[in-house]
Amino acid sequence: MNNNDVLRRSRYILELKDNQIVKIFKHVDRSVTDQQVNLWLKREDDAEFSPLSDDDLLDFLDALIIEKRGKKDGPNVRFKQRMDNNLILMKLKIAFALKSEDVLETMQLAGFKISKHELSALFRKKDHKHFRVCKNQMLRKFMKGLQLKYRGIPNAMKKNQAATDKNKEQDQTETDSPKTGKLKLSGDSKSQKSSKTRANTRVKTVWKIPKKDD
User: What is the 3-state secondary structure (H, E, C) of the chain?
Assistant: First the structure.
């Protein structure tokens, strides 16, 4: 994922308009225009596309935290940080006030499952022996989970799920007996059961070996 993609996905998750993004940037004393935001949000194949720098994305994420969580008391001290997927994941986690369990659930919404131990490794210092790099797929799934969490499941997915549930219900109805709920026996099965019953009721003939005459 590139920086512009993170901005686009964040905008979609929160349903932000261009002028709202401009206001968010003001939380970190950044002055950007609606036109600049519009260029950042364009696709890479657009002639007017403008790449979002690491500093621009860092400003946006820090401003988003203030927008969602409020400004802390005291002087606004910001440290220079190297932009990577781990930092993006951490700042989005803070912005949306998510606990570790919430992050895991968000991942699962997008069909991506990791353990709590694996998740904690993403937030460790880079020189820690258990540090793990957050790859593009993981960050993409996390943001997809946020989309499903805050925007809901798309109507197309809901319709497909409803159709699947209906088919399952229909198959179950055709298989089960309407009165007892027991499985119906086919013609062959009934015939086999009847044959077994007749075989069990037959009188068995025991042949005795005749004794030799003295």
Answer: CCHHHHHHHHHHHHCCCHHHHHHHHHHHCCCCCHHHHHHHHCCCCCCCCCCCCHHHHHHHHHHHHHHHHCCCCCCCCCCCCCCCHHHHHHHHHHHCCCCHHHHHHHHHHCCCCCCHHHHHHHCCCCCCCCCCCCCHHHHHHHHHHHHHHHHCCCHHHHHHHHHHHHHHHHHHHHHECCCCCCECCCHHHHHHHHHHHHHHHCCCCCCCCCCCCC
